[in-house]
Specification:
The protein is α/β, with parallel strands linked by helices. The chain has three domains: about 70 residues, no CATH class; about 240 residues, Rossmann fold, CATH 3.40.50; about 60 residues, Arc Repressor Mutant, subunit A (Orthogonal Bundle), CATH 1.10.10.10. The chain is built from 16 helices and twelve strands. The strands form two sheets. It has a nine-stranded mixed beta sheet with strand order 1-2-6-5-4-3-7-8-9, sandwiched between helices. β3, α6 and β4 form a beta-alpha-beta unit. α1 packs across α4, α2 crosses α3 and α14 crosses α15. It is elongated and about 75 Å long. The termini are far apart.
């Protein structure tokens, strides 16, 4: 029998998880110690007075919790608590599941089997085409595609599976989508899928929030597929979380000459499963859907990065046993780079901009001209003009099947 909170209990849960220094571990410890979120909130003032050596901790007010729920409801968002009927079973099974998630769209999609597809924001045309191909093929088999609404591979995976339902996990609040230009995509996702967030409704995402989001992306899915990732890509932390969570990790191989494939090739050397087509995923995920056990920890001792990294400023709130072992991930895994992203900008109109865009989408791996034009989102004539100029400059190689790639450098 699933949990069902009353309106008052839902406010208690939201108020408690929004308090300073209360993350998922502290929340669980407080509820277990005092018998409920309401009782924990009543006990917090005394605990704060008795605490020694703790920094000041602000208690989220009842009025703030009520305003958040009312504001979210106006946007069609509901709050689902851990253990309630629409809370995803796969997410519930991870080490630190969010006590409460804000859901916009069709909550029922959260109960269906899912696979995460993630990768580079600055993806090549080949990477975008692969993400689309995998997303479309898996969606036809009834599998929900999960990703992080990021530019590049994430967006391609979402768009390929819009009709059958896709889930986007957000780094910020539902009212603060990142990147902001994906508002139209987010609206389309809600028609058959869902947007979810554990953050306050008006929360502007910060660096630490993206790894939090990544653990949710992997936690929602039976398997995570990394399509394209450089060695300093945030997609690799998603793969690490998946491995620690006992989920399957797939990696699409790439050219050793393309820096955008270095991370995925490293994953393959670490034991990730090779993925070149959707059937590679279906062969392993199929038995898992039917009840097979998840694969053992892929990353072994290295998975401790996902277990012990303090994604929240959680405190061992006065002997409730919630503290985490301090650990710091590399800087690139604690932040989402905010560099300008050329693929997300408006389609270029002049020849120089078109040439720059086409060159950025090309890599050592051959890609069909039609796929390249679709990724570039510019007129076909501009694509062919840019390709001709690259070929004249000796920067383009042509292959059978109307495919092209960047020419290898001497």
């Amino acid at each position: 029998m699933s949990l069902r909170l009353t309106d008052a209990q839902r406010l208690d849960w939201l108020q408690l998880i929004r308090c300073d220094n209360v993350g998922p571990r502290t929340f669980r410890a407080l509820v277990n110690k005092f018998g409920g979120a309401g009782a924990a909130l009543q006990a917090l003032p005394d605990l704060l007075r008795q605490a020694k050596g703790e920094r000041a901790i602000r208690i989220y007010s009842r009025d703030e919790a009520e305003r958040e729920i009312v504001g979210a409801a106006k946007a069609g968002i509901r709050y689902v608590a851990l253990g309630e009927a629409h809370y995803p079973a796969t997410l519930r099974a991870i080490d630190s599941p969010p006590p409460m998630i804000a859901v916009r769209g069709r909550a029922e999609v959260l109960t269906r089997p899912a696979v995460a597809i993630v990768g580079s924001r600055n993806a090549s045309a080949a990477g975008l085409a692969m993400a689309e191909r995998l997303g479309r093929a898996l969606a036809k088999e009834g599998i929900v595609i999960v990703s992080g609404l990021a530019r590049g591979v994430d967006a391609a995976a979402h768009r390929a599976s819009l009709a059958s339902g896709t889930i986007a996990a957000l780094a910020g609040g539902q009212a603060r989508l990142y990147p902001p230009e994906h508002g139209e995509l987010a609206q389309a996702i809600c028609e058959n899928g869902a947007l979810i967030s554990e953050m306050p409704h008006e929360w502007e995402p910060r660096g630490r929030d993206f790894p939090r989001r990544n653990r949710i992306v992997s936690g929602l899915a039976l398997a995570t597929v990394v399509v394209e990732a450089a060695r300093r890509s945030g997609s690799l932390i998603t793969a690490r979380f998946a491995g620690e969570q006992g989920r399957e990790v797939f990696a699409v191989p790439g050219s050793p000459l393309d820096p955008r494939a270095e991370g995925t090739n490293d994953l393959l050397r670490s034991g990730a499963t090779l993925c070149t087509r959707a059937e590679d995923i279906l062969d392993i995920v199929g038995p898992m859907i039917e009840g097979g056990a998840p694969r053992a920890d892929l990353f072994g001792e290295d998975a401790g990065l996902a277990r012990t990294e303090p994604l929240w400023d959680e405190s061992d709130l006065f002997d409730v046993g919630a503290s985490a072992t301090p650990h710091t991930l590399p800087d690139h895994e604690m932040s989402e780079p905010r560099e300008d992203f050329q693929h997300a900008s408006a389609p270029p109109c002049d020849a120089d901009a078109a040439l720059e865009r086409i060159a950025s989408l090309l890599g050592p791996s051959p890609i069909g001209v039609d796929d390249l034009a679709r990724a570039a989102q510019i007129p076909a004539q501009a694509v062919h003009t840019a390709l001709l100029e690259l070929e004249i400059d000796g920067r383009l190689s042509r292959h059978g099947g109307n495919r092209v790639s960047l020419a290898p450098r001497d």
